[in-house]
Amino acid sequence: MSGLTPAIKKPRVNAERLATALRLWIAAGPGLFWIILFLLIPSAMLLAIAFLTNSDFGSPVLPLSLGSFSEVAGYGILGWSGANFVTLARSLVQTGAATSMTILLAYPLVFFIITRPANLRPVLLLFAILPSWTNQVVRTYAWMQLLNPEAPLSHIAQKLGIIPEHLGLMPGDFAVLIGLTYNYLPYMVVPLYAAAEKLDWTLVEAGRDLYASGTKLFFNTVFPQTLPGLLSGIILVGIPAFGDYVVPQLLGGDRAMMLGSLIAGQFTFSPNWPYGAALTLIMLAFTCLGLVTFRRLTQRMGAGEGAML
Amino acid sequence: MTGIAQGPQPQAGPNRGSISLQGVTRIFAGTIPAVDGIDLEIKAGEFFTLLGPSGCGKTTLLRMIAGFEVPDAGRILISGREMQDVPAHKRAVNTVFQSYALFPHLNVQQNIGFGLRMQGVKAPERKTRVDAIMELLQIGPFATRNAAQLSGGQRQRVALARALVNEPEVVLLDEPLSALDAKLRNELQIELLRMQKRLGMTFIFVTHDQHEALVMSDRIGVMSKGRVQQVGPVLDVYEKPRNVFVAEFLGLSNIWPINPGGGAQVDTPIGPLQITASVGAERMAMIRPEKIWMWPTRPERPNVFAGQVSEAIYMGASTQYRVALTDAPAAPPILVLDTNNVAAERSWQAGEMVFVELKPDNVMMIEG
Q: Which domain holds residue B304?
């Protein structure tokens, strides 16, 4: 008798397991559908388009070709040009600079907020992230008003001799850096705030007790505790800043071109879809490479735990 | 400040490790003082315990000595040096925190070496000193482990090592054993004491646990409501408590209000008591429960009261009795503690009639 029981139970267990699995798939269904429809299919299309040929009207046509990739590498009708490498280098440098700027601004800001009374903190945090609630284009247009050659800020800079008489603070790399920093600061503030709010101040006291002060105290007690938030912030700021096209488009002009605006151009003003797709793939490759390197680095530092990676 | 001398300036001489508190006061925003005009002299090399209930100000006092809090009034001298303008990171004082506060991103030996590194001690010397203290505290086997991977007892040791390795003038311990289970606590009490005697540093130990205070201290200061109620060697404070708070906080006691009858006798709710102590301003009589004798028949001596055992609680090494006095039914039953050692003649059951004897020498006069 007793030997029969498991024999009977077994199919029931399987049925239950099946039902559980089914429920899980149904629940995940909409999300999976979303990912397939809006991530996997477009990515596949992008990959395919990159290997097509550009028609005279800017739409991709057969035959298959590697022409767009040689264009990415700088070979055009007029011979080789290093412009794309300059654009890539500028994108990397601007991303690094903007991310560093957000870090330098966010740390004092976050520590100012968390040392205020508890009921005031959410309000102050709200003020810090409020600008990100408006449209990025609007915000960037606002910066155009502040930095154009006729704006008071530009006049001051002209008077001080920082820029020549006839020029403004925009268009150019400086304006792009300001725009990127301003746009992505909230994405550094929020994760850093989340980490700093949980800060164990006893460890800071222990540091003081053990003869640390000033920057030594900060880097040995505060910094390690906020590192997970900082790492999350670097990712949240770095990736979109690297691909941003609104800011370089509006504040940069032709001389401060970044990858994002270069790509956007291939799908709008001067259509060349295969070239645009190939550029996008290259950018994606750099982003992935950056992420993997970053991950390796933080793992070696043994501090990646808790970061959004 | 030169570039090399990062840490505290070492003090030499017999004063090294002494602490002098003069009228030290700390008032938190708009409340009653947390620490209220404390005068206290702690000798160099002493194991001194601040004993008191939570909220009595003992931790605030400790934090002021460490430099984490600034007194609103009064002076703190460490090794004879005024500490007013000396910040925490320049005091030759190290703290063992209640929560241990080990750095989670550092391993055990890095934690222990932290203070030396901050003082600019070079790596080879640092390693020698860290290794030596780890050997002393038997934490060598987990030197490279992370703080999160340690048990409570191990963390405690690491926290102690992290303080001791700096060879501070004073070590401050803020209820360092309170998170440990009883057996481990007993072990570490002994170890802590041995360490202190061996290294000769001044230890200031904060606890609310009277047993811990009794076992470990050279002297204790009993605190209540921001003031030190009594300071003295353990034996003195226990045997001759100054007031009701001290008597009740440190050990068990029987306390009665008195009417001085003049001379060697006072009136109490249980009847007249013969005493040998002289009565000054004190208005209470106190006797420890273990100082009371129990007899099956009435001895012909003073201060003997007939009663009935109303409660007998066996506690292993001793038994705790409550004896309701026949002639003073309104007074609370007397608390008596009798040891169950080899010399113990007998024990009593609840309901048995008994005579209790309060020898005049053992009746203390204390303040209200």
A: 255-366
Flag whether B29 is in a domain.
yes
Rounded Cα–Cα distance for residues A31 and A133 (Å): 25
> Are A203 and A218 a contacting pair, CB within 8 Å?
no
| CA gap B2, B266 in Å, rounded | 68
Distance from C-alpha of A120 to C-alpha of A123, rounded to nearest angstrom = 6
For residues B251-269, give the mean pLDDT. Answer: 86
**Angle between the N-to-C axes of helices A121-129 and A83-114, in degrees from 0 to 180, rounded to the nearest 10:** 160
- Which residue, B207, B239, B271, sits at the end of a domain? B239
Q: How many CB pairs under 8 A join A and B?
A: 65
Q: Is residue B84 part of a domain?
A: yes
CATH number for the domain spanning B190: value is 3.40.50.300
**Interchain contact A211–B (C-beta under 8 A):** yes
Q: Is B95 in contact with A206 (Cβ distance < 8 A)?
A: yes
Same domain, B100 and B167: yes
Regarding whether B227 and B259 lie in a shared domain, the answer is no
> Contacts of residue A212 in chain B, CB cutoff 8 Å?
89, 114, 118
A210 CA to chain B: closest CA distance, Å?
A: 4
Its ipTM equals 0.83
- Inter-chain touch A206–B101, beta carbons under 8 Å: yes
**What does the pLDDT look like over B290-312, one tens digit per residue?**
999 999 999 999 999 999 999 99
Q: Are A209 and B66 an interchain contact pair (Cβ–Cβ within 8 Å)?
A: yes
Instruction: Please check whether residue A138 is in contact with residue A220, taking contact to mean a CB–CB distance below 8 angstroms.
Output: no
Say if residue B272 is in the same domain as residue B302.
yes
B173 and B203 together in one domain: yes
Q: pTM score, two decimals? A: 0.80
For A62-109, write each residue's pLDDT tens digit: 787 777 787 777 777 777 777 788 888 888 999 999 999 999 999 999
**What is the pLDDT confidence band of residue B2, given thresholds at 50, 70 and 90?**
very low
Which residue of chain B has the CA closest to A223? B105
Token duo for residue A96: 């690094």
Instruction: Determine, yes or no, domain membership for B229.
Output: yes
Chain A contact for B198, CB < 8 A? no
Considering the domain architecture, whether residues B26 and B160 belong to the same structural domain is answered as: yes
Confidence at residue A306, expressed as pLDDT on a 0 to 100 scale = 42
Q: Which of B7, B67, B97 sits opposite A206 (nearest CB)?
A: B97
A254/B contact by beta carbon, under 8 A: no
Note the pLDDT of residue B159: 94
